[in-house]
Amino acid sequence: MKRRQTDLLIILDRTENAAEGLTRQIYAQLRGAILSGRLRAGDRIPPSRELARDLDVARLTVATAYEWLQAEGYVYGRVGAGTFVSSVFDGQSELGERGPHIFERERQAVTSGSRPATEGEMPPVPLSSWARRIATLPFHESDRASTAPFNFGASAGAADAFPWARWRRIVGAQDPLDPMATYRERATRLGNWDTLLGPPETRAAVASWLRRSRAVRCESEQLLIAGSVQQMLALLARLLVEPGQRLLVEDPSYTGFHAAFLAEGAILEGIPVDESGLRIEALPEPTAATAATAARLAIVTPSHQYPTGVTLTLERRVALLEWARRAQVVLVEDDYDGDLRLEGQPLEALRGLDDRDEVIYLGTFAKALYPAVRLAFAVLPRWLVEPVARARATSDRHPNWRDALAVARFIEAGELERHLARMRRLYHARRDALVAALREELSGIVTIGPAEAGIHLLAGLPAGVDDVALAQAARQQGINFMPLSPHYQRAARPGMLLGFGAMDEGQLRAGVRRLAPLVCEAVSGV
């Protein structure tokens, strides 16, 4: 059997006029790779026999180069495992006191001598106005990824409750009669016009599910399948926003979505939210004087407002649609967790009330399934389908089909609805445990917001509390949560966004017990 070649790039000068012998060349190139960072601490270098074969030199030539490197502390040998690049800390290597005390100085000499540092470097060509705009945008950590013992992350779900065995059977299905399993046949159509919006099978399955579960008015040809909601928002921003135009957002709202529109030069205008959702009377009415900069888009979360958790009433939904038609504004409905309704009957989506095909509906499987399924979907008005397909063709002609086809089969097999029913029961119990713990530990201190859907709730704090500082103090104690105030455009209120998806009932109670003294201390300082 033919043996695999190593992937270590070494080029030898075998001419008579070579400045150095083969052993010295191998040593110097390996040393240079370590100092420049091409080879890093812990990387395994090939056995001398394999490298000698690949370079077509005597094994002794390579072995001698390795001995020189080991003697100087650049590599070390581990019996039965191989030869590895040394890790260096304060002049020490795996060889302890024999490690090269000048190792870091030599590394800096190699890296600094190759080219100037890139930080603050002038580009060889002027950056576009788009690039200059995104350079000024802050990175919003709206839901910090965390390995904290007590993770109250608002988007962290119960990945351990996912039906992995059934999912693996679906992903690995090889039934030739099942169109979802014939990946190679489907791949031949990749990039064709009918696939730019995603696999037709997935679009049909998702459209059918949305019609029956969320009363969304849609046909499969209106569906866009993408890797994330953020990716779809970036497409919409480029197609529908001009620099200087206003974008209407709820106040507070999910700041992670703002960047896509700010990158296109949009100006955010926050519309306040109260206990019944978006305040319709605060929406701007169109005038001739503001026509040039008037908003053309408004992003709303009517089913479960993020971050407050309130639900937009039916009366306000109807009024919102009427205002949008009057103001000629397209509504973007972010239904990020509408399928996780914990109380009462599922709500009809705003798109279900739209009889004029003007609402853009966004959803994701990241919460319904598990975050590693990077799959989101949009229902587009018919007039927007072709522009989106053309935009997709310029940037992402070949989306990943594997998860998309598996999700389609998951839906058609009835597994999605069975899984959601189980998750609703699970999250219902966890929400109740969190509410009970808050009432027991922080009664009279925090105000518990509604949690009729989704996997997080808002615990409001008294005015004057620094919720950002509280979140930082909590992280020092192994507790992760997002503060409320950064989600506001103006008139910020303090609070804690507490997710209950990632921890069981016992962990939730223990987390609140550890959090409570920190909250009390923060409140006492006001």
How would you characterize this protein structure?
- The protein is α/β, with parallel strands linked by helices and about 525 residues long.
- The protein has two domains: about 20-115, Winged helix-like DNA-binding domain superfamily/Winged helix DNA-binding domain (Arc Repressor Mutant, subunit A); about 145-165 and about 230-380 and about 415-525, Aspartate Aminotransferase, domain 2, CATH 3.40.640.
- It has helices spanning about 20-35, 50-55, 60-70, 105-115, 130-135, 165-170, 185, 200-215, 230-240, 260, 315-325, 350-355, 380-395, 400-410, 415-440, 465-475, 505-525; strands at about 45, 75-80, 80-85, 150, 225, 245-250, 265-275, 275-280, 295-300, 330-335, 360-365, 375-380, 445-450, 455-460, 480, 480-485, 495-500.
- The protein has an eight-stranded mixed beta sheet, with helices on both faces.
Structure at a glance:
With 526 residues, this protein is α/β, with parallel strands linked by helices. The chain has 17 helices and 17 strands.
- What is the CATH class of the largest domain? Alpha Beta
Please provide the count of β strands: 17
N/C terminus separation: 74 Å
* Gross CATH architecture of the largest domain: 3-Layer(aba) Sandwich
Indicate the low-confidence ranges by residue numbers.
1-5, 89-119, 174-185
Specify the number of helices: 17
Radius of gyration: 29 Å
CATH superfamily of the largest domain: Type I PLP-dependent aspartate aminotransferase-like (Major domain)
Shape: globular
